[in-house]
Amino acid sequence: MPLSEFTLIDRYLAAQSLTRSDVALGIGDDGALLVPPLDQHLVVTLDTLVADVHFFAATDPERLGHKALAVNLSDLAAMGALPAWATLALTLPQIDEVWLERFCRGLFDLARRYNVQLVGGDTTHGPTTVISLQAHGFVPPNQALRRDGARPGDGIYVTGTPGDAGLALAAAYGQVAVAAEDRDSVQARLERPEPRIAQGLALRGIASAAVDISDGLAQDLGHILERSRVGARLDVGQLPLSPALSRTLDCEAAWLMALTSGDDYELCFTVPPQQSAALATLAAAWDCGCTRIGVITEAPGLRLSRADGADFQLERAGYDHFR
Questions:
Q1: Ligand-binding site membership of 47 (annotated)
Q2: Which residues share a beta bridge with 134?
């Protein structure tokens, strides 16, 4: 007998091992009853992943479950928020129990790491797989990291090594050849991004602005510049390139990949000069690394420069669904 929608929910989505004390009523009713702390702001974010747009339909479902939550946790990290709850809307062309079991394993393994409880959602039949996940987190009043706080003179920093996920995607399309020893690591960067929750929490009171890198470093930094009404100067020679990216592409192509490819889910943030020493102390303990790549300027726009001062030009800034 085919699995019903309600059996699917009970067997795979409601059967999670994690429960939080601030969930008065979770999956199983018309809505969840949640108890947010009185002294915290609620941060809400939502991302949708569509088969063969945001992920290959043949992607390992365990990695896909991880990524569906990770991309939302990355948004919470960029706000300096502590994760709490999630809701999931899942559209499937057919019910595949093996696929569902693996998808939920990846989703709930990451959820347990960050104490996130799935509290509701929806399942439906449709022509292709669509995953919409909404995440909720908490941040104390006036401590949220926002995009509108950057000021001239602030340093610009990035975690990790942007461009690795883009390298994996380029390899999948046959545009580049990645060495055998690098394939697994760059593929994991594309399919199993690590949300920088610890870094986002640590940056409260230190960073003046922050954004997560989902559509390309240059484009996402541009959101900070627009919201803060400032400009920036980046030294492309300071971009932190992974060994895999440096081995695969020449210098200029690697810079371009690091600046414009999406799906990195690293943090880009700005820090006032008086907080740079505090940041250095914090970042020394981060396993993802942290690199200063530029400075906020009063003059609007993003200027990219080489070590000799010459401009580095971009034909595009990053990913755009409708371009």
A1: yes
A2: 46, 87
Q: Is 75 annotated as a binding residue?
A: yes
Q: Are residue 166 and residue 291 in the same domain, yes or no?
A: yes
Q: Are residues 133 and 181 in the same domain?
A: no
Q: How many domains does the chain have?
A: 2
Q: How many helices (H) and strands (E) does the chain have?
A: 10, 12
- Residue 238 is assigned to a structural domain of this protein: yes
Q: What's the predicted TM-score (pTM) here?
A: 0.93
Residue 306 annotated as binding?
no
Q: What dihedral angle (degrees, nearest 10) is formed by the CA atoms of 147, 151, 152, 158?
A: -40
For 130-154, how does the pLDDT look when each residue is reduced to its tens digit (9 = 90+)? 999 999 999 999 999 999 999 999 9
The response to whether 45 counts as a known ligand-binding position is yes
Say if residue 164 carries a ligand binding annotation.
Answer: no
157 is in an annotated binding site: no
- Do the annotations mark residue 215 as ligand-binding? yes
**Domain span including residue 50:** 5-139
